[in-house]
Amino acid sequence: MITLIISAIEDDYEREFITNIYNDYYDYMRKKAYSFVRNNEEAEELVHDAFVNLIENVKVVMTVEKQKLPSYIITTIRNVCINRWKANKKFHEAVFSMDDADLANWLKDDAALPEDLYIKNEELFLMHKALSRLPERDQRLLEAKYTLNLSDEDIGMQFDIAKQNVRVYIMRARRKAYALMKEVTVNEK
Questions:
Q1: How far lies 179's CA from each of 16, 119, 120, in Å?
Q2: d(Cα 43, Cα 34) in Å, to the nearest integer?
Q3: pLDDT in tens, the chain (189 residues)
Q4: What is the CATH number of domain 2-96?
Q5: In Å, how far are 8, 13, 69 from 62, measured between CA atoms?
Q6: Under 8 Å CB-to-CB from 181, ≥6 apart: which residues?
Q7: Does domain 107-188 have CATH number 1.10.10.10?
Q8: What are the DSSP calls for the chain, one per residue?
Q9: pTM for the full predicted model
Q10: Domain spans of the chain, in order of start
């Protein structure tokens, strides 16, 4: 496919220049692309895209000094790989970004086994029992963070805590709750 695109270049000198780049650097570009994606077909596509980029900018590429040309070509393939990765990342974030309600519906298990429901209810009961033994401030902090989904800034204003310290307070409250859950679990057995 790349050779077909190269043959479509009208200017003989430009066609020969790109053909030489293809012959000299194709293998190295393919290895570089493969190191990014670890997939032969996708690496081939990335090299193809890099050559399209080089062909579109052939006049600029031809002005690059001969000793700097390998660096220019490798930078081109690297940038093509990075751009593809960013585009894929944005696509996956758009496809898989769900709010909590969507995620809860998607993960809902309508056919849960009775044993699983019993265990889950026991865990919720133990967690409720442990949380009720926490100091009121810790209870309210955990409720603000995990039930009300308030931001650290809002929690800080509500509890008169510096924004940068909110996470520390919440972490300490979680640790206390976890310790109490372990204690409640031991006492229940």
A1: 73, 20, 19
A2: 5
A3: 667 777 778 888 888 998 999 999 999 999 989 888 888 999 999 999 999 999 888 999 999 998 999 989 988 998 898 888 888 776 555 544 445 555 455 445 455 566 666 777 777 777 778 788 888 888 888 888 887 888 888 888 888 888 889 899 999 988 988 888 887 666 665
A4: 1.10.1740
A5: 18, 10, 9
A6: 126, 127, 130
A7: yes
A8: -HHHHHHT-S-HHHHHHHHHHHHHHHHHHHHHHHHHH--HHHHHHHHHHHHHHHHHTHHHHHHS-GGGHHHHHHHHHHHHHHHHHHHHHHHHHHHH---HHHHHHHH--TT--HHHHHHHHHHHHHHHHHHHTS-HHHHHHHIIIIIS---HHHHHHHHT--GGGHHHHHHHHHHHHHHHHHHHHHHH-
A9: 0.48
A10: 2-96, 107-188
Q: Residue 19 has which token pair?
A: 């053909």
CA 151 to chain CA mean position, Å: 22
**Do 2-96 and 107-188 show the same overall fold?**
no
